[in-house]
Amino acid sequence: MQTGVPRAGDEGLARRLKALACTAPLHDLDARKTRLDWVDAERYQMAEIGLQAIDEVTLAMDFDHGAAQPEVVRRLLPFIGTQAPDAPAGEHERVGRWVIENLINVGSLDRGFAVEYGSLAADGRYVRRRFDFKLLVELAGPDGEVYLRASDEAINVLVGALDTDVESAQVAAEVKLENLISRGLLGDARLAAEQARYRTVQYAEALRQKLDATRRDVRSVDWLAAVPALLDEALTHIEGRYRAETAILDHIATARDEATEPSRRRQAAELVGVVRDCIQRHTQLQTRLQEAGAVFRAEQDRQQFAGRPRRAAIDVFGQLLRPCLTLHVATAVEPTAAFFRAGTGVRVPSVPSLGGLVETLLAPPSDRDPLGEPVPVPELAPAAPDPFGADRWGRVDAALPAAGRAVRLSALLAEARGADPDLPRLVALRVLHAVGSAVTTARTQGDAELLLAVDDGTVLRDAEYGGADLLVGTAEVL
User: What are the contacts of 170-177 at 24+ separation with CB within 8 A?
Assistant: First the structure.
């Protein structure tokens, strides 16, 4: 039997690959910090700040609200300040905002991360798949404010147990916590208690997502079998955890009272706060579990007996086109112009059709392949050849002025036109690219020289090109 070759559809291998993918954005923070030109980023450990940010967001989450981004940045300031104590407070705050924005992935279309990995199909072929995930998500709360929430992948990264069953991880954490307390290892016991608290938050987040999906479309959630089973398991989970944590709290209080060293008493007191917070979160989760059935019945009645939308979408064909076809051209200009002025502006309407929006919101979610969707292999067109060639690029570099010398663009074009009829076009492109060159970028890249082009108001007198007769020079970068 051949060993060392993964089986087709191996779920364990896929989980490990996804686990590595979830940590990639944290490593990427340290990889990209050298590109920041507004801070000496070598002093900061960005991955550690990212984990601390996920920690703060996770602890601030509940069913209705998440963590406000300014508050998370404020809580990060002491931790960031320990890495660079001589830096100003404004720099610490800007570093914290930069880390959080990168964990949200601000700037991308869906504000998520995507990683490609491979797996073996049933016929033995190697198939490339795409895994999409998020770490911090911006969601609107009931009061209209935007909050940060940690995704399941972020919580798994934080506790170091990626793709682990919630209930089994919780039981293991409680057993480990009780064992550490009985042995007097209060420092390790606090870490185990915090991991148990993260698992409780993750369990509550799973229930919140089910209830949010129910409020959007009751048909998208299996309330016949899946959700009742989840509620029963969650109630059993809370009952067992409450008993265990109450007993553990008694052991911690005993250890705190019997401790003589101030450090051990402080550790025991901090551990008491963590376990009490766990008990409080269990109570909140139990309240939401008891209200879940009422939420389902209320949403079922609301969605089943809701009336039709009172505001209909505009029928362009029936309300505009057909009536205008029966009118004279002079008469039809006014209604058509009014429609296109309102419908084709610089800003695209956020809701072009109310019926289409409702249909999109009520569409049941599609089932996803647990291994991810296969990545299609694109058919790339052959690269276009360089219209200038290496020889012309070399001649343009030789024609540019040396360091400390400035030449007019008109003189460069005349010299290039005498050497090669096609060379002035490349000279004009090089000079145009030199307008507004960034000295900071050149210094960061380690360039020795930088080509600069400045407009001093002189008009270009040339038979082929027009505009400003730029003053072109080469400067040394110190």
Answer: 170/196, 170/199, 170/200, 170/203, 170/237, 170/241, 171/240, 173/199, 174/241, 174/244, 174/245, 174/248, 177/248
Q: What is the bridge-based pairing of β-strands 146-150 and 136-140? A: antiparallel
Rounded Cα distance between 155 and 139, Å, is 17
Helices (H), 388-438: 389-399, 409-419, 423-433
- pLDDT digit string (tens) for 371-406? 777 778 778 788 777 777 777 778 888 778 877 788
**What are the φ/ψ torsions at residue 451 (nearest 5 degrees)?**
-85, 130
**Separation of first and last alpha carbons in the chain:** 65
Looking at beta carbons, which pairs linking 408-417 to residues 24 or more positions away fall under 8 Å? 408/458, 408/469, 408/470, 408/471, 408/472, 409/453, 409/460, 409/468, 409/469, 409/470, 409/471, 409/472, 410/460, 410/461, 410/462, 410/469, 412/472, 413/462, 413/464, 413/465
Select from 79, 275, 264 the least CA-distant residue to 187. Answer: 264
Distance CA 133, CA 15 (A): 13
Q: pLDDT-derived band of residue 431, with 50, 70 and 90 as boundaries?
A: confident
Its sign, for the CA torsion 54, 56, 61, 65, is negative
| Structural contact between residues 363 and 217, judged by C-beta atoms closer than 8 angstroms | yes
């990626």: which residue's tokens? 162
Strands 126-133 and 471-476: unpaired
Residue 466 tokens read as 């027009």
Q: Which of 120, 86, 79 is nearest to 100 (CA)?
A: 79
Please state, in angstroms and rounded to a whole number, the distance separating the CA atoms of residues 321 and 332: 10
Cβ contact 42:84 at 8 Å: no
Return the sign of the alpha-carbon dihedral for residues 283, 284, 285, 288.
positive
d(CA 20, CA 37): 29
pTM reported for the whole predicted model: 0.50
Confidence of residue 103 (pLDDT cuts 50, 70, 90): very high
